[in-house]
């Protein structure tokens, strides 16, 4: 079983998305955050369950899509590192995730 570890930038971006949604619908924002943590928590047992991002076909990164969010992560032997969260409609640039 892998430990799911959130990086500070990923948490900050999730918070920014939730704050924006909360301007119109605080309940929806709360539900989104709960769903994100529920689904990423499952990565403990199933770390390869996320898809490989179409923009990064040969990378070590995977993603979980929970509209309107894309959650990017990579795994090592003991951890799942949640690295980046972005809104689905934004264009992913490989440099956002580093060069690995």
From TrEMBL:
Keyword terms of this UniProt record: Toxin-antitoxin system
Gene3D superfamilies, alphabetized: RelE-like
InterPro entries given in the database record: RelE/ParE_toxin, RelE/ParE_toxin_dom_sf, TA_system_RelE-like_toxin
Glycoprotein is among the record's keywords: no
Pfam families on file: ParE_toxin
Taxonomy, superkingdom: Bacteria
Keyword S-adenosyl-L-methionine: no
Family statement drawn from the similarity comment of this UniProt entry: Belongs to the RelE toxin family.
Name of this protein: Plasmid stabilization system protein ParE
Higher taxonomy: Bacteria, Pseudomonadati, Pseudomonadota, Gammaproteobacteria, Pseudomonadales
